[in-house]
Here is the input.
Amino acid sequence: MSNASEALLKGTSKAVLGPALLVLEDGTVFEGRACGAAGETFGEICFNTSLEGYLEVITDPSYAGQIITMTYPQIGNYGVNLDDAQASRPALRGLIVRDMCAQPSNWRSEMTLPEFLQREGIVAAEGIDTRALVRHIRDHGAQRAVLSTVDTDVEGLLVKVRASESIVGVNLAETVSCEQAHPFEEGALPESMAFALDEQLTDGDGVPKSFRVVAYDCGAKRSILQNLARCGADITVVPWDTAAEEVLALAPDGVFLSNGPGDPDAVAGTYQQVEKLLGQVPVFGICLGHQMISKAAGAQMEKLKYGHRGGNQPVMNLRTGRVEITAQNHGFGLVFPTLGELLPEESGGFSEHADDLRFWSEKGIAPVVRNPRFGRIQLTHVNLNDGTPEGIAFLDAPVFSVQYHPEASPGPTDAHYLFTAFMRLMDGRDDYLDIDIAQDRLQGWRF
Amino acid sequence: MPKREDIRSILVIGSGPIVIGQACEFDYSGAQACKVLKADGYRVILVNSNPATIMTDPELVDRTYVEPITPEFVEKIIERERPDALLPTLGGQTGLNTAVDLAKAGVLDKYGVEMIGCDLDAIERGEDRKLFNECMEELGIETARSGYAYSVEDAERIVVDLGFPVVLRPSFTLGGAGGGIAHDLDELRSIVAQGIELSPAGEVLVEESIEGWKEYEMEVMRDRAGNGIIICSIENFDPMGVHTGDSITVAPAQTLSDVEYQRMRVASLAILEKIGVETGGSNVQFAIHPETGRMVIIEMNPRVSRSSALASKATGFPIAKAAAKLAVGYTLDEITNDITKATPACFEPSIDYCVVKVPRFAFEKFQGTDDTLSTRMKAVGEIMAIGRTFEEALGKAMRSLENGRAGLGADGKGEVSLEAEMADLVSRPTADRIFFAAEALRHGWTAAKVSEATRIDPWFAHRIADMVQVQENLRGMTLDELDADALLVAKRYGLSDVQIAHLTGTAELDVRAHRKELGVVPSFKTVDTCAAEFASSTSYHYKTYDASETEGAPRTKQRIMILGAGPNRIGQGIEFDYCCVHASYALREAGYETIMVNCNPETVSTDYDTSDKLYFEPLTFEDVMDIVDVEEPDGVIVTLGGQTPLKLARPLEAQGVPIIGTSPESIDLAEDRDRFSAILDELGISYPAAGMASTFEEACQVADRIGFPLLVRPSYVLGGRGMAIVYDGAQLEKFMGEAARISPDHPVYLDRFLEGAVEVDLDALCDGEQVYVGGILEHIEMAGIHSGDSACCIPPFSLSEAVLAQLRSIAQRIALRLGVKGLLNIQFAIKDSVIYVIEANPRASRTVPFISKATGVPLAKLASRIMVGESIASFHLPPDDRRLDHFSVKEAVMPFGRFPGADVVLGPEMKSTGEVMGIARNFPAAYLKTQLAISYALPDGGVAFISVNDRDKRAVVPIVRDIVRLGFRILATSGTARALQAVGIDCEVVDKLHEGSASITERIAAGDISFMLNTPFGSATRGDGYEMRAAAVRHGITYVTTLAAAQAMVAGMEVVRDSGLDIVALQDLPQWKE
Here is the structure.
């Protein structure tokens, strides 16, 4: 920033906090200005396309190890409302925005986003051509990056970033999991996020049913637990590597496997326990939880070029043909054919796996594979943008999971019905997944 | 689900003429829809009375009816064409209302036509407030508390519960016509009384005021499988209380957190399902209390709308196209995203820029009307601007309006210094309030104070405060002090080169040179629906300084850049956009890469697939030059978009930009009165005597020389602004005083006014060697009425072959002498067998689309091909002196109903917003169709009220005889009655207004009058006539203000009585094919 430009900004809301440099491992450099805490941070560079919900993104534990770029240019407009936070502390490594707002406006705002970032020690930069950065990531893939407000030597930063740790092969879940088992306090449910009490299952006398759920915490978003609780779950949260025997000893009605950051292959401590739980108790997994179930069934994972992160991903439910607009956040995904051979008699007569799973959405078929460990597994959900798997259901065991985020936060709540489905699964219903989005749409919203 | 095979032919209803609240966005939507339906193999039948639309191009659909959009005419079309289905959701409120009428009248059942996209029940649940409120209650979604009034007393009762202020909404009126906010009993009584009159149901909704709340819109789509998506959220800059069409709006929503946004999202989708919108697009509006977050649904429209057109342009998602495909059975996941070509349309666009829409008003045209914005829409057009930040987009928007401003203030205009005046200007919502808000901030108001005074959200106020702060920091710096960083800051806060020049005391070109020397040039980004997540194959771009990487496709062929027409306003309407679109179509077909530049989101030209490349940018020198710098076009077309691009011709040429077609020098030859007069003298062509004067004394000398009456106008004003006809010295003195005020340093032009002359418009093509006369239009009104407001007919109905040949010959000589390469429009006046040339415009005129429709020769397409070097001879056109065997009439549509208080008399200043066309075997029938297309009702007996000025008293007699013969009883004012009684016509005498007793306005209000003929003269009868005409407009009485129109109307009524009106498809008329 030259003196003349600082003179022009005098008296505006734009604080001049000094330069920030973003250097990618392939040598690409972006210059910006600091707009959060000062410091130097390393992580995988990726982007999120949600138009709103920056606070939920910043506080989502699944972003551990990553530097997030928001594609919407002006971030911080409505300030910070801690009710919306997904964890008590942010886990991401850094934040990149086009333009940071220091004078927000919203009736629920408690502080500005720059204040929050500084309080939480999150390094952030603004003034970067985020669209160019996103196009670079799209074309060249997610990669290691360094964001620094203290070192302005590009060459030095490049050396440092190339020496930094990749997130591939690293168990990040353990860094954001809880220390010890604890109940989820339902009392903490914020008024603003009122979901789904109406749909709660009841017994013959109309009394709401309650289900004992053990939730593996690999970095669980608060809103997932809130949604489970609202649907009638009485939740005990346990650390990521809790032994299956300990879980079963709690005599749960069901086990929930949470979302979490990073490489699923590195989270053996969870999926090895999950393998022992599948078939023993109803299990529902979201995101990393879905990957844990897949790993437990012996499937392989792949790293996506630049991942799915945003709130507008179309997913078709192959059982109903309906499309859900979903919130997503994952850089790794299941390779569906590795779950097992296709069963032609339950897959519309097809016996060859398709590389692009949109083959099934176009045919209107939910194919079934024979898994060597757990019997039949059905592909229930497919991403219509790129044909990747988004959900599976075991047909010979009470297990289902989705790669995307039915709790949204941020994003559309079309898939909220999956929480209800989990309750139905624990209630022993075979048709647990057959819920109309439209019927479920307004569950619990208060206007 | 694939498309329906049980439907083969589909009737699409358009929206008719451009009126306030219903503009060319419906041509954009309708044209898109027609194209995809046809591409899907359906036989498409279209009805739309507006000839200036792309959708009525005969090659677009199978059967095109340019006929009145009335249940009677649409039934005739259904009877002849027997469509399987009717798609009613693309023609705005007009299309929807007509469809509802047809369904209710049993016409659809009678002919077995299925309404697709939306059924009658859903339309009624969406439109009928009672049913709508019930639906919302069942969903648990709050509506504003309200009650229905069928009388003023009802309203008074309801307001006891609600308290003032209350919002009043008459049921079933277009664009909120007749609505308003009442703050006290007096206002309540007057608005309710008017509203009950205007509402077809005689019903007014009285509603709790949510004035000042935050306002949002959601654009929603749904398919028949039940998949629902939000295309775009829009946040209004102006709070509740200003009609959303009159509000500045911003996409996406800026000040909502995710949970607040998602609440609105689920509500929108649930509302669509509840109302029963089976497929298609809808728009749902919400209000949110700024302090509590309480959310109230305002309304939903179960059809594509102005907002959906805006949302399409803002996101790149073609809502109308998708709606048409959904209506024939596809589901969203089966439609491919046009922009990425790889992902499905079943997703929610993510945008990585900010979009600002600003309405364009025309209050200066309607003196005497209140310019306060309210719940009744008054904007005549709008512009949209895209930037990476709100600040950048707003800066761009404020220089796109074609109102002489170079941005948000800091351009040496509109400065306010008085604090007292400031408070009123800032708090009252008007067209210019945003400028005043900026001025207030400049004078030390805080953002909080501005927000408090205006109820504009503090977020917006803070952003504007930052913009003003940067401007003020810049003021007084020198250009040399600005380094690259500083210039970037200025640009990122939305400043134009003109503003920087003003603030640093330099010239625009100096700023540009300095900027480029320092390497401060903009980059161009792409609108791709997905925030760059996927590669995009569509070149839809905007300019930004808030980024460093430019996206653009490499050059593959010769590039032609077409400069569009900017915002719709009176005098510059959809006709020019039509010409630009045609040029792009023709040149694409001829193998060129076409580049469109425009900032009007309502138009077809800004559809991303009209041209190879679209730049959504203001039409200023700076913005156009920046695009020229990156695109390096081989040719730039400035003569098709009206005045907006034309005025750039010289400055662009001076920078070495290759202007193609008629050269800027030739344009100047025609526009410069002295140079043009010299050419006419040289060619021996007559023109009215003229002079110039700066003072009243000088004016008197001119008047002595050329005689009264005079057509007088200030120089250097546009669109006939301030133009008048003066008959005597007293009027001249008054005018000279006014002119000195409007345009103090410029002289006034005085032309001999050819009273009673026949006016003629002629449009021709010229390639430098040959001239082809596309059409000759005879005006129905006599000289003195702006050609844009005058009805006209092709072929001429009263001119001899000899005169026509003479007109063609004059056109040929002028075109060749000026060196026209492209289009030329000449206006003539013929009086006492002498042909006078009034003016020549070497550019596309307003009448080009109409003539093209009437003759089957696409003039704008041919003009663009001439501009790239093709010859007229190579087109093999039909001879231009051929006889057309049908008559086509164009009639102007006036917005007077929107501007209570403004006079409805036609004059030399243009006031119409749109036009309709009527085609028939004879002139009267064609004329009558235009009247039906506008007023939707034809008087068939009852009382005709006649009041004419003294000059017309003799000529009116035969017309009144005809009126009597048609079965009307005659009511006349005393002077007119004397003239009529003298020749033995029976008539009742009614008092003029100031004569007391049961005045004519009371008779009008009582519904006694079915037809009114009133010709004003000079200013003497202005007061009276004004009241009568205003009453006629309010009560929707068919009225005419010229004898010529009355004559045509009466002849038309006779034709209807004798033989009825037949319908004509354009495809049955001769069409030129290569």
Observations:
- The two ends of chain B are 40 Å apart (CA to CA).
- Residues 144 and 208 of chain B are 6 Å apart (CA to CA).
- Chain B is about 35% helix and 20% strand.
- Chain B touches chain A through 86 residues (CB under 8 Å).
